[in-house]
Amino acid sequence: MKKRNFLALLALLALCLFGCKQESEAETDQPYAKNEAQTERQAPKYYIDPATYSVRPIGDANPNVVLLTFDDVPRPLPTSNAPTIAKHLEDAGVKGLFFANGMYLEDQEGRDAIKAIADKGHVIGNHTQTHANLNDLTAEQTREEIQATNEAVEGVTGDKVYFFRPPFGSTNAALDGLMEEFGMLAMNWSFGYDWVADYQDAEALTKQTLESEFLQPGANILMHDTQWTAEALPAIIQGLKDQGYQIVDPNEIARPEEMKDLGL
């Protein structure tokens, strides 16, 4: 009798352990979940001028602003500087717009990196799946590049992607229609220097950015996931503030449907 009770107890224990293991594995395999505790979206304070890609105020919003954007994120770790860039922005109390390539989200490290950036309140945009030049693509290939990255980003962050930046600033005849279809806004930039060989160190990049003739209210500043950008960023942010600029929060930029509602 005691032996039967002992065997029954062992069987019950094994069943419990098997069930716990399956539950743990199921939790590990779950996709990223959308944060349902997000605060209700406030009315936008800015919009992107479709002719110049500059940031324009809505109503009485401060016009003396610039937008910080970062392309080609997150490059494969450990070489990616996107997490460091996001940390510098957080330390300065400002937000950025990060344009992701879907190919960098194919591994877990890339997905975790972009999720961490989004969780800090930064906005994630679309920079195509493979950093393709749209001039070389058909309409269907362009759709695939955009849709694949939207699905990759949205699968990680749980948030719809509203902003698109074409690699190399190149567009094609299909882009306007695709932006309308996907409910997105395409934007290029006002200026950016970190891809130029002469400015691929922190000191030179900082100086050129802060002294650029194109630095003016509404500037849409292009940067990339590079080491020298990450090293220069704290000084760039402080220099912009010293010149009286506010770093606009991309969460406050109107989405396409909001621009329509505002007649923009």
Give a brief rundown of this model.
By secondary structure, the protein is of the alpha/beta class. It is 41% helix and 13% strand. Residues 1-30 have low confidence and may be disordered.
Shape: globular
Largest sheet report: 5 strands, parallel
CATH topology: TIM Barrel
Straight-line distance between termini: 83 Å
Rg, nearest Å: 23 Å
CATH homologous group name: Glycoside hydrolase/deacetylase
Q: Approximately how much beta-strand content do the residues carry?
A: 5-15%
Helix/sheet category = alpha/beta
Number of helices: 8
Number of strands: 9
Mean pLDDT: 90
Just name the CATH architecture. Alpha-Beta Barrel
Uncertain runs with pLDDT below 50, 5 residues or more?
Answer: 1-30
Order of helices and strands: HEEEHEHEHEHEHEHEH
Count of separate structural domains: 1
CATH class: Alpha Beta
Name the helicity range: 40-55%
Signal peptide: 1-26
GO cellular component, one term: membrane
Protein name: NodB homology domain-containing protein
GO molecular function: hydrolase activity, acting on carbon-nitrogen (but not peptide) bonds; metal ion binding
